[in-house]
Amino acid sequence: MLFSIAPKKKKSELFNRETEFNTLEKDVESGRIILLDGLRRIGKTSLLKVFLNESDHFSIMIDCRAFEKNNRIERESFNRGISKAIEREFKTSKFKKFIGSFSEIGIGEISISLNNKIENEKPDISDILNDINYLMEKREKKFIIAFDEAQFLRFYGRGGNEFLQIMAYAYDNLDNIVFILTGSEVGLLHDFMNVEDVEAPLYGRYINEITLERFKKEKSIEFLKKGFDETEIVISDNEIEKAVDKLDGIVGYLSMFGYMALAEDDFDFNTNLARTSDMAEKIVKKEIQTLILKSLNYGYVLNAIAYGMDRFSKIKKYVKNNFSSISDPTLSKILSGLKKQSFIDVEYIKTQKLYAFPDPVIKKVCEEMTFEK
Fold it and tell me: Of 14, 81, 99, 139, which has the fewest beta carbons less than 10 angstroms from its beta carbon?
């Protein structure tokens, strides 16, 4: 169903992502590390889940957010989470058929029985990957390890370097292990991977990257029409176009609009669009409030950009006139942080750097922000 708000799991539920799906399929066969990135609520997790469900290869998927506490990922807990996910994959009928007559498989120092649990409380990830690679190699299969919101891996150990070293080792030695990393905070994910730093673990390794773009207007309209065709709700072409103008081509918002229409006993277009906008704005407000807790300057700068201050000098002047003075280094740091976390976009016209919002809901929320003086 197109209008479910949970990540999709079936290919029939995936809309207008055939190119990205096929690219992901090709990259898994030939690549070793794949980045799947794009804006918040653009459909990365849906694409990844559908792909893993459809793939002939074996896989696990880890949501890195579940392991992050106070800017830290506890290594033993995270490693245990990976081991448990592998254990679950080994207990599927698909894997049992693949492994044939084996009843037990040695994974490093851990004995994983198809009927029992992993006993070792401190699994060594490198040993696990070595043994899985050996097993996959014998059957000419890949084992995919997918990390959703992988930018949080930077909190694993010291700056995530230890995990990057594991990935680098697998890249160089384990041909049947493939990593897929998704991230909505694209700049932070790139910073974590740090592939251009000669001292970094992944330096010199080729990373495949797939970026999900928002739907163009005609595709957004097609998505809503197709979704409503699956329902008994009557909606006009004019109303669909109005919804797209309001919510843009971000599939998460469009799905929310359709889902909330289904939840209504008596569908009213204007009421539903207003409720959808309100819910989307609440989600964005929560994300921005988290930023502002770090520094009010984030809020000041977002407010400036929302009011059309699209250049560095204009933003600085607006913040100074309306809130407080801000130094050039501080403003540069704030703008860089907002870009890395995908709250703003940067484009160049000739040599001029311009700042704008990739998401109309973020823009609206930032226009309406107020600050105590």
Answer: 139
Separation of alpha carbons 58 and 52, rounded Å = 8
126-149 average pLDDT score: 90
- Here the tokens at position 270 are 């204007």
Q: What is the pLDDT of residues 278-298, one digit of tens each?
A: 999 999 999 999 889 889 999
Architecture of domain 295-367 in this structure? Orthogonal Bundle (1.10)
| Exposed/middle/buried for residue 114 (C-beta within 10 Å: 0-12, 13-18, 19+) | middle
Q: Give tens-digit pLDDT for 232-253.
A: 899 999 999 999 999 999 999 9
**Is the domain 11-212 a CATH 3.40.50.2000 member?**
no
Architecture of domain 217-285: Orthogonal Bundle (1.10)
Domain residue spans of the chain: 11-212, 217-285, 295-367
Identify the pLDDT of residue 90.
82
Please write the tens of the pLDDT for every residue from 141-163.
999 999 999 999 999 988 899 99
